[in-house]
């Protein structure tokens, strides 16, 4: 019998266990009690020295805006924070020479004002201390509950203006936690704060995947005693059963336009790749091989599908036209490469490779063929790119506990994300919100 390598080790464990019917409950962003803990190690190849001054009257807001901005920039690994030790409004006079002497090449200043309708007017300005000029600035009228989002957007702007790459601090992540007998699909800010529970179940939930507009998540639930593909509106909690065919229904991945999903089905025997409309209609088979084909992923332009197959004798990653047809092998280094994920710009492929008994995260430059090992752990799974392509989040184990990790695509900046009680895995990084 051919080994069922197409599922992650977690999936195989679930699939082989005796499944008992459990109740799944969809909750439109119910608050969660557990908080994530983020630890950062490593720095970027070069760091930009920046000072974040205290914003005038920011004590009015529920969370300190500048503290969130500082944490975001520090977590990125690409900034060296200079202690400002001062409160400076966006219209205050600034002695640029003084800040240059203190080593700051950029300075962020701002203010907060409470509006009559209860919102906060948050004003921000980014200054170039070297040239003595203004780089950027804007104001946001934010509800008290959106304080963190406002701060993340300011950090995004700073990141983009100083690095030339769009920031991803205001995006969200989704993942699965297991505590006791309960599985939870949770959504949080990219920094692990603001956790909301989208689904609770007594049975496993795996393979969450974001729609490109950030409004929905697709996932596999075992609540009907078998793997079934669902989609869920994250605002309303409304769920739709998309694939419930005979056998296994697994590995959902959204098309860039959100109109369909690529899925893996065993309805006709060996697991093969299909597409299906987001409403569960229009099933189309893409592969018809005598091998196991699974874990499909659309390319960023929607023209291709990357997938996993053992047609060469061992698990490797292939690419084919989004409508099917000839498949071309993509990975050649190592005899066991699984879980393909393509970067937003289509230039880099991330995957998990087993070498010397270790499951580790690798990245392949599709243009040059250069491969880079990004992790130093041994039980990695489920990679997911940040929407700006600068970072990859993945699941791993630390001290026998399932955790999440984030690494920059050059391998220099690393973070670990853990939850105090229970395990956390199956991460997926959400898109930019319009």
UniProtKB/TrEMBL annotation:
Gene name of the encoded protein: tolB
A family per Pfam:
PD40
Instruction: Give the similarity note.
Output: Belongs to the TolB family.
Q: Which UniProt keywords apply?
A: Cell cycle, Cell division, Periplasm, Signal
Task: Give the source species.
Answer: Undibacterium rugosum
Coiled-coil ranges from the UniProt annotation: none
UniProt name for this protein: Tol-Pal system protein TolB
**Which Gene Ontology terms of cellular component type are present?**
periplasmic space
Where in or outside the cell it occurs: the entry states: Periplasm
The positions making up the signal sequence are 1-34
Q: What does this protein do?
A: Part of the Tol-Pal system, which plays a role in outer membrane invagination during cell division and is important for maintaining outer membrane integrity.
Residue ranges annotated for the TolB N-terminal domain, each copy included: 36-134
Assembly and partners?
Answer: The Tol-Pal system is composed of five core proteins: the inner membrane proteins TolA, TolQ and TolR, the periplasmic protein TolB and the outer membrane protein Pal. They form a network linking the inner and outer membranes and the peptidoglycan layer.
Which superkingdom is the protein from?
Bacteria
The alphabetized list of GO BP terms reads:
cell division; protein import
Keyword DNA repair on this protein?
Answer: no
């Amino acid at each position: 019998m051919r080994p069922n390598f197409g599922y992650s080790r977690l999936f195989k464990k679930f699939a082989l266990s005796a499944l008992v019917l459990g109740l799944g409950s969809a909750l439109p962003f119910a608050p969660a009690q557990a908080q994530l803990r983020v630890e950062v190690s490593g720095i970027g190849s070069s760091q930009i020295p920046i000072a974040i001054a205290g914003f005038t009257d920011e004590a009015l807001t529920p969370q300190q805006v500048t503290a969130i901005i500082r944490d975001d920039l520090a977590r990125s690994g690409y900034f060296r924070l200079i202690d400002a030790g001062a409160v400076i409004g966006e219209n205050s006079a600034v002695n640029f020479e003084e800040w240059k002497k203190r080593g700051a090449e950029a300075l962020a200043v701002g203010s907060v004002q409470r509006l009559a309708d209860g919102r906060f007017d948050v004003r921000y300005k980014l200054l170039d201390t070297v040239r003595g000029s203004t780089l950027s600035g804007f104001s946001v009228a934010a509800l008290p509950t959106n304080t963190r989002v406002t701060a993340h957007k300011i950090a995004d702007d700073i990141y983009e203006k100083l690095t030339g790459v769009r920031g991803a601090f205001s995006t969200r992540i989704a993942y699965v936690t297991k505590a006791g007998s309960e599985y939870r699909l949770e959504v949080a800010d990219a920094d692990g704060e603001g956790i909301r529970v989208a689904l609770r179940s007594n049975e496993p939930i795996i393979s969450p995947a974001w729609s490109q507009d950030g409004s929905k998540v697709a996932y596999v639930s075992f609540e009907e005693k078998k793997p079934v593909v669902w989609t869920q509106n994250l605002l309303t909690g409304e769920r739709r059963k998309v694939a419930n065919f005979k056998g296994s229904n697994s590995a959902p991945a959204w098309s860039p336009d959100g109109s369909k999903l690529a899925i893996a089905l065993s309805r006709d025997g060996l697991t093969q790749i299909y597409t299906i409309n987001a409403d569960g209609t229009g099933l189309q088979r893409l592969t018809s091989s005598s091998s196991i084909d699974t874990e499909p992923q659309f390319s960023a332009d929607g023209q291709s599908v990357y997938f996993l197959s053992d047609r060469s004798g061992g698990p490797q990653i292939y690419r084919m036209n989004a409508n099917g047809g000839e498949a071309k092998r993509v990975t050649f280094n190592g005899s066991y490469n699984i879980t393909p994920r393509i970067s937003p710009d289509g230039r880099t492929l991330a995957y998990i490779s087993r070498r010397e008994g270790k499951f580790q995260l690798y990245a392949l430059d599709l243009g040059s063929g250069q491969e880079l090992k990004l992790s130093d752990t041994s039980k990695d799974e489920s990679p997911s790119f940040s929407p700006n392509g600068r970072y990859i989040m993945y699941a791993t184990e630390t001290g026998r506990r399932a955790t999440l990790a984030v690494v920059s695509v050059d391998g220099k900046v690393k973070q670990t994300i853990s939850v105090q009680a229970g395990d956390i895995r199956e991460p997926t990084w959400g898109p930019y919100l319009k």
